[in-house]
Amino acid sequence: MGLRKVLLSFFLLVFLSAAGAQERFITVSSTTSTEQSGLFKHLLPLFTAKTGIQVRVVAVGTGQALDIGRRGDADVVFVHARPLEEKFVAEGHGVQRFEVMYNDFILIGPKSDPAKVAGTRDIVAALQKIKAAQVPFVSRGDKSGTHFAELALWKEAGIDIAKDKGAWYRDTGQGMGPALNSAAGMNAYILSDRGTWLSFKNRADLAIAVEGDRRLFNQYGVMLVNPAKHPQVKKEMGQAFVDWVVSPEGQKAIADFKIGGEQLFFPNARK
Amino acid sequence: MGSILEAMRGALSLIASGDATLAGIVLLSLKVSLSAVFFATLLALPLGAAIAVTRFPGRRALIVLLNALMGLPPVVVGLVVYLLLSRAGPLGPLGLLFTPPAMVVAQTILILPIIAALCRQAVEDAWIEYEEQLRSLGAEGMRAALTIVWDIRYSLLTAVLAGLGRACAEVGAVIIVGGNIDGVTRVMTTTIALETSKGDLPLALSLGIVLILLVLLLNAGAYFIKEAAQRRYG
Amino acid sequence: MILPLRLDQLAFAAGGREIIAPLTLELGDGASSVILGANGAGKSVLMRLMHGLLAPTSGRVAWSDADAQRVRRQQAMVFQRPVMLRRSALANVVYALEIAGIPAAERKTRAREALKEVGLHGLANRPARVLSGGEQQRLALARAWALHPEVLFLDEPTASLDPSATREIEAVIRAFDAGGTKIVMATHNLAQARRLGDEVLFLHRGRLVERTPVETFFRQPSSAEAAAFIKGELPWV
Question: Are chains A and B in contact at 3+ CB pairs closer than 8 Å?
Fold first, then answer.
């Protein structure tokens, strides 16, 4: 019977230690682009060193990130889909939206470039050509910031994608990385944020096809989840994080983040 | 084939490097899954045994249900636990969402039916041998059930290992309720999912091999304990 | 005292087949009763009906004590193949005492005494399942002994044992008898019936054909079926 007692105490110990660890921390729901590009790995230690506050990031699509905030499961939301963010604040779930930084979307496509769009700057014309050529195009289809941006661009190109999509339009319902993996596998065009693309390793035969269009601008915003609506929100610590990322110090830290010498995010918080 | 060999080499060098982050992830995986197995076993063995030795209306339906629940989709379990533990949900005030205990809860629910169903079958088979003797001694119902559970404990190890395998392997539930937070709720499977989505397929595969080796090691250990014990106790 | 045991029009059928025909019988204190009969005569079923492991199809089993728990605790049964738990010999006996509600403080002492009684005290800490067939059967008897039952049912206790193990088992059964326990034993072994029994209950195809003191039974069975059985089993007599 000694063995039983040993096993029991072992498991209890394991469980308690897993349950323990009560530090000062906040939960930030954010997007895969900020997490997977490595921005947070660069940014958060600086914030923690200054304030002693740990930041736990749950990285999902923008739609889901906002939903986590809406349910009161995060203290801060850090995403990139302005209309959705404004709706979030208007509904009373967020206190106030602050613009933090931007980067841009890029159109990725096969090097063979069957739609003949590589090297052009006009994203709307490029989408029209892809549609005309009926070449494979991978959509996130997951209500993420990138997905919303893509839908807006189709609209601008005068294409009702819900109606006009054919077998060439592959709605994958996946995060940015998995969608890029799919595109690599199908040799398809795909709209991606630049940060994820730069840190993405399984590029296979894909390369940047279209970039630099002003319509590919990708704005990130941050907001404290409204403590009036969700009383358990860690108001002071959450606000401290929001204040820090838009402060000169936080903005500089964002500007300093580079992959292979290339700056990924451009701070643009209003003074 | 080449990429698999590559990944094997990668896995070995990952292990050899003794990387602290990886060690933390492996340790958390073990903590979460072993805790889940512990709690699920604690609940599932009496449950399975009770169903095995008692007769009541609806018993067959319950057995079919239990067997079917062995195939519970992890994502669904994750989603349900997420909704329960969310601040907006009924257990929100506990503040467990996005913590390791939430992952333990989800995995416990996921593997409980597996252990209970396999235990039910094992105890029912053993009951044929033990029934008269135990009833003659005056042990009936739950008492007899638990006696059998303890007596066939080394056979039940297989049921527990099936649960452990499932817990270690699933990603759908823990990624939803844990949130895959770096250093807090990131376990082997969610790391593999993350590296896959970053397109770092070789690293993902190497991590996968580390996970498989880990599960293999646990199973080998359990198997040898079982063998030794069976030789000793007959 | 739970004896005498009265069987009142006791009958048992399974799958539409009559296994035990309505039977009325009283078993009192003292004499060892041997239930004798060919394979399939219904000996085991009758024992299980008396011990309460089977519920009769009709009729009833009545002990003189109305308290069900006392009735249960005052009887024990040893099967042809004992089922031992995967724990030590001692722990198997302790388990039986625990189920019987014996206080924890007494269990080990009583269990050791019982093992000593059957000559297994040297093997007390051996895992029960690795004991030989004869040792396991003696352990089953020790388990019964520890309970100090008023009635001990034995169902072919030596049927799967060799002669030397059989002798050891029979010695223990005699000790039970000497200690005042009522023995009710099913066997198809005539020699054993003669060695251990005081009276014979002869079953033939589920019917109690005769009930006779042991000596009379072998010299002069009153039924033709019993005579044929004795002749068949002991053709040299």
Answer: yes
